[in-house]
Fold these 2 entries.
Entry 1:
Amino acid sequence: MLVNNTMKVDELSDMKALPVKSVLKFVILVFCLALLNLHTLSAQSERFSDYVDPVIGSAHSRWFFYTPAANPFGMAKPSASTDGHYGNPSGWEAVGYDPRHESIESFVNFREFQIGGVALMATTGDLITIPGELEEPDSGYRSRFSKENEVDRPGYYSVLLDDYDIKAELTSTPRVAFHRYTFPESDRSHLLFDIGNRQGESGEVIDAVVRKVSDREIEGFVITLPEYVKNYQTGATVAMYFVARMDKTPDSFGTFLNENTHHNHESVQGKGAGMYVTFNTDNHESVTVKLGLSYTSTEQARLNLEAEADELTFQEVRQQAEEKWESMLGRIAVEGGSKEDKVKFYTGLYHALLGRGLASDVDGTYRKNDHSIGQIPLDESGNPLYHHYNTDAVWGAFWNLGTLWAMAYPDYLSEYLNTHIDFYEETGWLSDGLATFKYVSGVGTNFVGQFIASGYNRGIQGLDTETAWEAVRGNELGWINRPYGSGKRDVKAFLERGYVPFENSGEYYSGSTNRSSRFAASHTMEYSFSAYAAAQMAKSLGKPDDYGKLMDLSHGWKKLYDEDTGYIRPRDLEGNFIDNFDPSEPWRGFQEGNAYQYTFYVPHDPEGLVEKIGEDTFNERLDNLFETAEKVNFSSSEEIDAFAGVGGVYNHGNQPSLHISWLFNYSGSPWLTQKWVREISDSFYGTEPIRGYGLGQDEDQGQLGAWFVLAGMGLFDVAGGSDQEPTLQLSLPMFERVRIKLHPDHFPGEEFVITVDGDPSNHKYIRSAALNGQALNSFHFPWETFVNGGHLHLESSPNAVESWGINY
């Protein structure tokens, strides 16, 4: 609030009668008030999005990572691509945008996990219709660019295409991409609609169509076969549709199939299909293109365009997008702390709100698993009750996205869970990942049941409880006729034995069969955890038989604990521990990890794990583990590769390790959780393109970013919401004040506020705590307390305070 320091004329005249000292005091007072006004104005002009740097971690990043012009959870993700047409061999390798590249090939509009297509590019001069190679920019229509001429912020992107002297700008509504190209003076200014080529994770193009509808409208579609769809749902494909409207009539047009052009042709079909339009432009003349997008049809793409953006200008849409980002980021407001930590915090939060985008149309239509068209239920006004979303797997997401979304974005989490429940209602199964409702299981497991159960435990509204329970139960106990894409192919063995036996299957994606798995130990640990989550939901719903059966399964991890070595160790088909056991060896019984890491994978029973190992041994081993991991920045210090840390003692660059630093809370040493959470935050995370989320990170649609946000607030849940009565565990926040807005449709409270006295930027430790005015000497507090709103006050310390937090 601004201070009112204006004065009336008669008040000023009265000053003449005052003594000199009084006048001097008055002048000083006015000066101080002016400074206060300046400070207040500065605080008001500071925006949360100013701390977002989309280029952080973009080097060697996944296809969906760098899309700054998108809306939060948007379908439209118009963004620069430096190498998208190369694709990737397995569907997950880094591709799309790398700031170390020196040329941009196009601006792609669909960018999700296993989804990519509809590219635009602006050029001048001779017409070229192939993108060309990175090493030879002149071999295609790509253009060199300079990072100094690139602007990327949430909701907006621009860059100067040096080879053509064209300024490209991008923004969006949730389902409409906006492109604005400012050309030089030329009678050969081109827009290319490259539709029939591979883009990022799209996989092979099966078919494509582009047609001219009118002088200023173009429509079309592309059908692709992503690698994960190919492997998890044989015969399925992904279709993307668009309708593009230009604000200037082209002087000429034509089609192309790769390098073959056809002047004045109004339509084309097949791989490599595209269309070009040519303008006569004055210097600095702009052409704006609106692209309505859809996964169902061109008619629905047109509906999305008209409903969201028909009358809007580029500038109006940019303002809307930026305001939407500001609103979403502002649900968690932090004050104090270092600028670097704020940049890490809000960039991480940005990624947590970016990746898993809309899959349904504005009227609630969507593409079903069987390729037919579905309809989300409508409210009394004819609007869909919720929306559907595409998604990478939720493997490990319960330690980051699940908790963060439940805290500040339960409205989105409810829609996300309903997406999966609708999928279950159609197919009878859950899918760990979804690309336009097609099975794209991330790693051949399936944690969607845990995600639904944790949402129920945390009070997320808008779910059909009985259908949700059926889906959760089936995911844990169902194996007969289970589709390959639903993951957990080895769950039959787990149900029969209480663990999965090891066998080195040649099966690539899931590594599993009905009787065994080459990832047997890690699957056993994971299935034990998700069984526990389902058991707690069963208990709440009054289903004692299911509760008993699932709780028995949740103890499966104990069957693989080797007393001789002190590690989780795979057993073979005969029930014997495997020979030649090396706890550092990845891929032999462990998926994307090893025994060093997976031995600590008991998030539902950390007390039981501490008891099994012994508290002193547990603390010593875990502390030594982090001292070793610190030497390689908690993942890899040199190697740029997504799997660089899988053989290490700890790997923050991948999901299986993300809860481990918080386990000291359960072993009587909460100060060590405080120490190592901060060390990881300072060392692993950076503010550079290469070391943003470790070296060669796999950020996985916001997972690593969300982890930093939770660490920055000093809140975490090792069980990922799986407990019937969830809790939040503590570490020291990085900021002096954190305010989390609570959603009124889901929670009774208005906000939860955390304040810290001391120096949280430089201190790591908690000296004391008070919750709602009452002293707190426990490392955790109930989720119910959080959602009712309240105030957590902490005092920081530069040194470990071993007496705090030890009361369970």
Entry 2:
Amino acid sequence: MMMMQSAATCSSSSFSRRRAFFMKVYDDNKRQRQRRDANVASSSNATTASSSESSSSSDVDVVAEDQQQQQQKSVAREIEFMVEMRCGKCVEKVERSVLSLPGVIQVSASLGTNTVRVLATSSVKTVEEKIASTGYKTRLIGQGNVELFNERLAERLGMDLRTLRQSLAAVAEFKGEAYQHKSCKGVVRFVQVNEETATFEADVLGLEKGKKYKLRVRMYGDTTRGVESCGEVYTTTKENEKQEEILGELCAVQAMEDGSIKASLQLPKTFFVWDIIGRALCIEEVVVGNEEEEDKGLRVAAVLARSAGVGENLKKVCQCDGTVIWESSPDDFTPQIVAEKDSKGGGSPLFEKGKVSVKRM
């Protein structure tokens, strides 16, 4: 009995230290943001709506040379991976390797759950590739520290706590021609780090070297006709004001030598991840010329779906077919158009001509 009490006390103490650590990070990020806002306010006493609109795209232009500076300005957030570790030496090797990355603040690996939690400003892909370089299979399973979000905030937003904590991260996936994404393949991720801070990062391949592309959140998640059916750029009405604020203009990115675009930005205080779930993330080529030619460049759209928070997705085996999580890949499921059924064959109404079926290849 005493041993059980001792273990419970130890566990409680560990939880308290961990919570205190993340609250300190939260406070530090908040102070940094307040100082930055104060500097911006003092250096620019008045800006007109037109000048704000014209400068917004240039302020968020991203080119390859700026990646290191972006990472230094990024806010630390928690990310979680499932990693195929088999012993204590595996745990030590992974922790040591990830800690060597610039931007990594803390690493905690668990052999019991085969998970690695990382607090970092580094991109998800950078951390994932570092883990993979140690020789272990890995998959991202969660982003965002749910412990920072409480009942009070949920009540204020008009939702229950469980729904709020399931809405702290979002992802849009581009999977090439099979999904009507043309040559685009990659992901764009959003994370609500805390109540005042949201971040996003993009890593997409298959674009044309040297061309510029705009990343936008649009109002609707209807991608049946691509960008055309996704509506206007996402806007919201400021609190206690009638004026609308355009939040969907994320950034303009120039494709690098290999045809990839990469971006990592901290979003405005009024941008909340739970407000964009179900909308669409669009990648739109910037075409130089008159307005009639704007639709001629590459324009693709993907729905922004919920992504699990840290500690909320610990399953190792897919219940559909028993596939182990680190043995699966984003290419496992591909859409196929079901062929027209013979008129005498009958069959399920789900398998009608032109319906899309998704199957494991």
